[in-house]
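Re: weekly structure request thread

Next one in the queue (85 aa):
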Amino acid sequence: MTLEIKKTTKLVGNLKVDGTIVKTYTVDINEKGISTVTEWTANPELYAANRREMRQQEAEFREKRYEVEDAILAEIEAAELEKQE
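Done, posted below.
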């Protein structure tokens, strides 16, 4: 019997209009910095009515995801360099 422990990171982004969740993004990032993205539109009418702003917020969320992925990759690279020393 073994215990396997993996470090993962999860980001959840809720796009809201006047407190109402319009769309939800979930990003699961594994220990290698690889993401799995799911999205769910809770209110298509509000999304359509606010599409331009929603897209801006989606881009901000995507940038945050990239920041987290890059940080994980930097940790991996630093650990590999330490092994070489």
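The two ends are 34 Å apart (CA to CA). DSSP finds two helices and three strands in the chain.
Next request, please.
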